[in-house]
Fold this sequence. Notes:
This protein is α/β, with parallel strands linked by helices. It contains 10 helices and 5 strands, in the order E-H-E-H-H-H-H-H-E-H-E-H-H-E-H. It has a 5-stranded parallel β-sheet, sandwiched between helices. It is globular and about 50 Å long. It binds adenosine-5'-triphosphate and the ligand Nc1ccn([C@@H]2O[C@H](COP(=O)(O)O)[C@@H](O)[C@H]2O)c(=O)n1. The ligand Nc1ccn([C@@H]2O[C@H](COP(=O)(O)O)[C@@H](O)[C@H]2O)c(=O)n1 binds next to helix 2, helix 5 and helix 9. Belongs to the cytidylate kinase family. Type 1 subfamily.
Amino acid sequence: xxIAIDGPAASGKGTLARRLAAHYGLxxxxxxxxxxxxxxxxxxxxxxxxxAASEQAAKTLDVADLDPETLRTAExxxxxxxxxxRPGVRAALLDLQRRFAGQPGGAVLDGRDIGxxxxxxxxxxxxxxxxxxxxxxxxxxxxxxxxxxxxxxxxLADILKRDERDSGRxxxxxxxxxxxxxxxxSDLGIEAAFAAALxxxxxxxx
Length: 206
Ligand SMILES: Nc1ncnc2c1ncn2[C@@H]1O[C@H](COP(=O)(O)OP(=O)(O)OP(=O)(O)O)[C@@H](O)[C@H]1O
Ligand SMILES: Nc1ccn([C@@H]2O[C@H](COP(=O)(O)O)[C@@H](O)[C@H]2O)c(=O)n1
């Protein structure tokens, strides 16, 4: 079974994707890490504004090299949303994601365009969201815990800017697929959100 999970930044989709993958014994791909890794390589080269450099980085990306610890910074979240708006970068990462989803037994993928572009035929699709202030508070605490020197206001501003860029781009914008189930986690803790997500997936399996 393929489970496709989309939603805006810090909505909790990665947390739910990991929990669902563990529950069903499926492999999980956090597709945001792909775009973060492309941005990391471009930033290291001083070429984030260079479209050709970002396409080249995407074409030569190795999933085995993705290190969540180094990639989940605020700077790379912003850089990822810049390179993710480029059609050539998205095209270069398409096959890799579809191959991951096509593994025997299925997979769980989370991102922005999984239910709409990468796996439009997935039987179980969730669109996870939460109010911006709630998302910012969660991400702020997470980044503080990781030792980043950042303010709540800066995190909220980053989230709003990324939401706008991700939803407004012409190539694979962040959208709820028509057949995705909406899950608002604003007033749900992690366990309650997981229970709701599991019930939605079970309903689709049945
Ligand atoms: N329902 C919840 N209640 C409280 N905290 C949550 C909940 N879901 C996730 N979190 C916390 O919020 C933060 C963001 O969650 P997560 O990384 O799953 O979001 P995301 O949507 O995958 O973000 P991104 O797209 O930016 O990678 C994490 O610190 C996570 O532990
Ligand atoms: N399927 C996806 C996944 C991510 N992006 C872009 O990457 C940025 C970082 O993603 P996180 O999930 O790690 O926060 C995100 O803001 C998107 O711009 C994407 O376009 N498609």
